[in-house]
Amino acid sequence: MDRHCHYFRWRKRIVRGEEKVIKKYRSEWKYCEEEADLLAIKQKLTALLEYDSYAEENGKYTIHSLYFDDYKDTCAKENVAGEGRRFKYRVRYYGNNPEKLWLEKKEKLNSYCYKRKCSISPKEFQSIIDGNAFDVFWNTDEQLLKEFCIDTVTRRFLPRIIIDYEREAFVEIISNVRITLDYNISASDETEFFLSGNYFNIPVLEQKKHILEVKFDDMLPSYIKTALQADVLIQQSFSKYYLGRIAVQDKKKYNKRM
Questions:
Q1: Rg for the chain (alpha carbons), in Å?
Q2: CA–CA separation, 33 vs 223, rounded Å?
Q3: Helices 122-129 & 143-154 angle (0-180, nearest 10)
Q4: Would the pLDDT of 21 be above 60?
Q5: 99-132, pLDDT tens digit by residue?
Q6: CB–CB of 116/105 below 8 Å?
Q7: Average pLDDT over residues 130-153
Q8: pLDDT in tens, 185-234
Q9: Are 58 and 168 in contact (CB under 8 A)?
Q10: Do residues 139 and 9 make contact, with C-beta atoms less than 8 angstroms apart?
Q11: pTM reported for the whole predicted model
């Protein structure tokens, strides 16, 4: 039996659930707020919580994410349709260090989320992009990376959009709470330049509008909820990936009219 047959036998085992991953979904609340409002919230959080380990001297760090979708754009369409259960893949690096890449699979179940991640080398990443997912599949022990290789072959997942932004993140370790303020979100469809950073960005949101996300397990402590003014803010359902796709499409339509 050749390697390709073994490959698809492994895929069937995943589908049948023989290789199970215990999933613990977390609540995820999202808000799109004015810069002045986020500044007021940030001042309260600074007095209560610690910055996360990625923070630089100013408390912020830059995130670069390359999102994938299949040939039918299923991930984007499910987001528009408001599907309760969906997922997406992304490859991410922080700051100016594309040598340290992370593959992530984020699953959504209504307002809950579950994320898995593993490291992926630039060589593995490029090999998959070049259409050599089989080579990576047979030379890794990472289950998530194997699943990603399977989907790039069977469902033709391809790079779709780059999303960049500055993040300021606060954590409460005991209750496993993570609060992120994401600034200056931008998008680019020049995916071939993801690792070099040499691509043109398009703003995703209106000027001085940013995103607040709150993630927690079972319960959000009341003192954090009060600091966030969670009873006043209006929760929204949106995806940086989808917003980025729309922003790039709108820009192209505008350029054609000019």
A1: 19
A2: 20
A3: 20
A4: no
A5: 999 999 999 888 789 999 999 999 999 999 999 9
A6: yes
A7: 97
A8: 999 999 999 999 999 999 999 999 999 999 999 889 999 999 998 778 88
A9: no
A10: no
A11: 0.88
Residues in the chain: 258
Compute the distance between CA of residue 96 and CA of residue 113 in angstroms, rounded to an integer: 28
> Which tokens go with 40?
């007021």
Q: What is the DSSP string of the chain?
A: --HHHHHHHHHHHHHHTSS------EEEEEEEEEHHHHHHHHHHHHHH-EE-TT--TTSEEEEEEEEEE-TT-HHHHHHHHT-SEEEEEEEEEETT-TTSEEEEEEEEETTEEEEEEEEE-HHHHHHHHTT-HHHHHHT---HHHHHHHHHHHHS--EEEEEEEEEEEEEEETTTTEEEEEEEEEEEE--GGGTTTT----EE-S-TTEEEEEEEESS---HHHHHHHTTTTSPP----HHHHHHHHHHHHHHHHHH-
